[in-house]
Specification:
8 helices, Vanadium-containing Chloroperoxidase, domain 2, single chain, 178 residues, mainly alpha
Length: 178
Amino acid sequence: MDVWLFYAVNAGLSNPFFDLLMPAITTTKLWYPIYVLGIGFLLLRGWQQRGTELGQRYLWCAALLVATVAVLDQASHRLLKEVISRPRPYLVLGDVRQLVGSGGGSFPSNHAMNNAATAVILTWFFPRRWMVFWGIACTIAFSRVYCGVHYPSDVLGGIVIGILGGLLAISFAKRLLR
């Protein structure tokens, strides 16, 4: 099923527009400046409204995002990917449309994991914008399969781990805030 879904997305949905869009969406070089600006915005708003509950929420949101993604990303790279050692689809399957480079093991998708954790945390702090956060996370996750560097199960596993990591971070923050 995993291989069938992989080909359904990677080859079955291929088109010239996605061939240009998905490699751009999947690259971290596009997102790093956005993430840095977002964290900077949260810190600035927190500092501007320091001493207020809203200011504290902005600062907590920034701290949770940075800490959660840093811990999850490193734990996944150092533990899961090295232990599981699942090869990337383009290394074992034929006729894979590999549109971007990648390194390390395939499971889990750190792109999907980090963005799902980010979506969970941002949704907790800013619930009215949940569709934006999850739309971005799901689009990035989809792009990993479309670009040929992950199986759908890698992406699903990354999303599940990211959700659990985001919920754990929120639980930790709630305890500290009491």
